[in-house]
């Protein structure tokens, strides 16, 4: 390549993610050829609203480009062109300059140019490491010029040396590489410049096979055919068990048009991770896609403001112990599409945990809990809910002794008695409906830790005028470094679920019929790993939102590791978070996409740091 060219990328990556546990990533063998790439055989999407589940636009044109072609191909505005190039070759395109008759007020127009990888050479489709694709991020692929005096044939051998360009000329020339299989740029087309000239180069990565690309162009004066890469996630993985997963979208008003969401879920692979931002690949080249028939789509008001709902996907029939990737596409009324960053999750290996949601007394519960074999979700919810009403009634009676409805006697300028009751309910649900995941393989002994079994249910009676507790204060755990997110529960007496021991199962679940082949020992969920409740947003938030005279106290030493164990939130960058739009905030405004607080209970890479039931967002909004 002549001269020195500065490679620009569509967007940058965040820190290297910590992937969810699972087996080795499967290799992928693509079956589609260029002749059938857009023949209406795109993998199924699950979606709602106008445009949901749609495949490729009717404007898509298949181009037959030979390795010896030197002719510049003229592109319509808007248009999408799909073509294949042998490795080491390039194709040239051009968009005609605007005419004075087409542009009544000026002879310039902004044009969006988007290039996606649809298929990679066969020799790369079996790659077993992301290092096989490292060259994509540093190899110039998309060359653009809007000044014919610089070059009308941009490419690796166009003779343009960027270091020799003036500051003004650098606005008229760009060289870009792929990020996650996608790159885009916006250029102004002018009459004086002669239009826009595009070169697409297929990397010569020691392969001889072909690359397949999708090139889209659209201007602000034409119907939109654009793809917008959103910087933040569009989905939240609520929880998984060994065969199912529960995902939700952002919240939207019930009195508005339902967003045209389309979800896609597939087994995670090296190829799908490498091309995660290429909608062309996702719709036409992705394998091991979960059938839309196995995705039950509903709506939920869980963790939303009044008048808002979320779209909810229950994905069933998944394989146990497997990594999956989920994408969300949102189609606008003008035809443009938003592609959100993928969420990653792993199904559990064992059957110790069962996914439950829509719990009457604990509507924020939506995750897997310890479950004996052969117990239905309804029976499991009923079992865990046995004493909830009693605890809530007792707490409410104590709370009613405070002047909740008297503005002159409020105990806090920022919290109400309803806030207090809501915080206590979240805490009670978190410690009752234990969040469950796989115990590490080979776990047989409870790990050594500081115990706090002597700490029990906090008192719900006032302690007198001098009974203010000083042992619990928000954000009082700075400096503690030895927190763990999960605890192996193999000893029923040292867990929150002692009633699920093999000795107690017959009493806890009379419907279970045991015999020589189905014993209590086999039915018991032990051992499992508990995802501990979040100390700051679950336990300490009760103390922050309830009358000080109630004397609420949380355990201190490393969160405790026995029946009273807790974990803590962790800082998560904006690009690594799960979807965070919950609708209207408590202060009457709209929740911004990027709240100021940085601590979260999970990230979009499948890591769960503690069980917050959504209270991490309340903490971020109020104290961030």
TrEMBL record:
Transmembrane segments: none
GO function terms (MF aspect): calcium channel activity
InterPro entries assigned to the protein according to its UniProt record, in alphabetical order: MID1/Yam8 (IPR024338)
One BP annotation, GO: calcium ion import across plasma membrane
Top-rank taxon, per record: Eukaryota
Entries under PANTHER family matching the protein: AEL197CP, MID1P
Stated name of the protein: BZ3500_MvSof-1268-A1-R1_Chr12-3g04000 protein
């Amino acid at each position: 390549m002549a001269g020195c060219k500065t490679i620009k990328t569509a967007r940058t990556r965040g820190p290297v993610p910590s992937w969810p546990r699972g087996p080795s990533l499967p290799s992928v063998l693509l079956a589609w050829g260029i002749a059938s790439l857009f023949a209406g055989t795109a993998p199924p999407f699950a979606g709602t609203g106008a445009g949901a589940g749609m495949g490729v636009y009717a404007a898509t044109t298949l181009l037959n480009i030979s390795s010896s072609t030197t002719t510049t191909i003229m592109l319509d505005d808007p248009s999408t062109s799909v073509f294949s190039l042998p490795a080491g070759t390039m194709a040239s395109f051009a968009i005609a300059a605007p005419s004075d008759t087409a542009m009544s007020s000026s002879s310039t127009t902004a044009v969006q140019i988007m290039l996606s990888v649809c298929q990679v050479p066969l020799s790369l489709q079996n790659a077993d490491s992301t290092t096989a694709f490292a060259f994509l991020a540093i190899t110039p692929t998309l060359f653009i010029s809007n000044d014919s005096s610089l070059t009308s044939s941009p490419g690796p051998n166009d003779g343009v040396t960027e270091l020799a360009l003036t500051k003004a000329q650098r606005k008229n020339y760009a060289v870009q590489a792929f990020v996650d299989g996608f790159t885009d740029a916006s250029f102004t087309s002018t009459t004086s410049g002669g239009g826009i000239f595009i070169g697409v180069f297929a990397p010569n990565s020691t392969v001889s096979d072909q690359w397949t690309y999708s090139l889209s162009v659209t201007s602000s004066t034409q119907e939109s055919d654009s793809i917008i890469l959103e910087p933040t996630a569009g989905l939240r993985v609520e929880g998984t068990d060994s065969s199912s997963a529960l995902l939700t979208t952002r919240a939207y008003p019930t009195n508005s048009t339902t967003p045209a969401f389309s979800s896609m879920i597939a087994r995670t692979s090296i190829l799908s991770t490498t091309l995660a931002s290429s909608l062309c690949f996702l719709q036409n080249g992705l394998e091991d896609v979960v059938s839309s028939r196995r995705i039950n789509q509903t709506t939920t008001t869980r963790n939303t403001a009044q008048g808002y709902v979320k779209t909810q996907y229950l994905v069933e029939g998944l394989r146990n112990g497997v990594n999956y990737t989920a994408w969300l596409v949102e189609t606008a009324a003008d035809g443009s599409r938003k592609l959100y960053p993928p969420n990653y999750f792993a199904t559990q290996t064992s059957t110790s945990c069962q996914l439950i949601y829509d719990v009457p007394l604990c509507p924020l519960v939506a995750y897997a809990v310890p479950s004996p074999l052969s117990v239905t979700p309804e029976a499991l919810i009923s079992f865990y809910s046995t004493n909830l009403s009693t605890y809530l009634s007792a707490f409410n009676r104590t709370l009613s002794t405070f002047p909740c409805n008297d503005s002159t006697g409020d105990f806090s300028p920022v919290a109400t008695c309803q806030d207090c009751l809501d915080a206590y309910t979240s805490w009670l649900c978190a410690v009752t409906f234990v969040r469950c995941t796989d115990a590490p393989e080979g776990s047989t002994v409870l790990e050594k830790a500081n115990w706090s079994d002597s700490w029990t249910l906090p008192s719900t009676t006032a302690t007198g005028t001098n009974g203010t507790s000083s042992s619990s204060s928000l954000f009082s755990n700075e400096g503690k470094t030895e927190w763990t997110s999960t605890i192996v529960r193999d000893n029923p007496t040292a867990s929150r679920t002692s009633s699920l021991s093999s000795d107690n199962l017959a009493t806890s679940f009379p419907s279970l019929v045991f015999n020589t082949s189905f014993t209590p020992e086999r039915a018991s969920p032990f051992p499992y790993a508990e995802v501990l409740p979040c100390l700051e947003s679950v336990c300490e938030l009760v103390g922050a939102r309830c009358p000080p005279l109630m004397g609420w106290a949380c355990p201190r030493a490393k969160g405790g590791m026995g029946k009273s164990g807790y974990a803590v939130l962790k800082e998560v960058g904006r690009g690594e978070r799960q979807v965070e739009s919950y609708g209207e905030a408590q202060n009457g405004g709209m929740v911004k996409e990027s709240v100021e607080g940085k601590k979260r209970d999970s990230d979009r890479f499948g890591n769960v740091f503690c069980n917050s039931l959504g209270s991490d967002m309340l903490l971020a909004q109020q104290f961030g």
